[in-house]
């Protein structure tokens, strides 16, 4: 089986989306052939992309939707399928991460990918929405079954399993790291302050709009 994995993050490197695809690839193992490409660098979809048995897209949430480079790539994929009148058996899976604490924030964006699959005549396999996604990189060295990480790890294991089994339950699962909401927000605000300081700004500067504090 051949799986095309598309990183929809606008970041050239170091993205959470890339880490998610790395994790899924690792779980799938060597029995599955994977091909990676980035939506921001690959331009439009090609005929070779249509040859994959499964399409997996990973992306960050951008205002309840998909980043523009990924959306443009999916449109080109859709147009290519329609133009060739391809009866593709390709199964489509998606994983979306967001900076909000709740995984439920990603559901609308995942439904966009589901609609893409249906309108292209493809099979919607399923999707995974991950809240507090930025924590994934910071917790990279933490065991997958550690309490704080377990919900996300099991969600990724579920997605990899249905891909490997060539199953298409069409389900969307929503998960997040096991951390209280108030603690996550506190840590996020602390992170913003540290980032501002590293750029020579004060915490109060984060509230400035159009030159007005």
Mind explaining what this structure looks like?
The chain has 213 residues and is α/β, with parallel strands linked by helices. The protein has 2 domains: 2-179, 3-Layer(aba) Sandwich (Rossmann fold); 180-213. 39% of the residues lie in helices and 19% in strands. It is built from 7 helices and 6 strands. Helix 1 (16-28) packs across helix 6 (150-164). The protein is globular. The relative contact order is 0.14. The model has no long low-confidence stretch (mean pLDDT 90).
Compose a concise summary of this entry.
The chain is α/β, with parallel strands linked by helices.
Secondary-structure map with pairings?
Blueprint: E1 2-7, H1 16-28, E2 33-38, H2 39-42, E3 54-60, H3 68-84, E4 91-97, H4 107-119, E5 123-131, H5 135-138, H6 150-164, E6 171-176, H7 181-198
Parallel strand pairs: 1-2, 1-3, 3-4, 4-5, 5-6
The stretches of 5 or more residues where confidence is low (pLDDT under 50) are: none
Distance between the termini: 56 Å
Order of helices and strands: EHEHEHEHEHHEH
Instruction: Quickly count the domains.
Output: 2
- Give the integer mean of the pLDDT values: 90
CATH topology of the largest domain: Rossmann fold
Features:
alpha/beta; 2 domains; 213 residues; 6-stranded parallel β-sheet; 6 strands; 19% strand; Rossmann fold
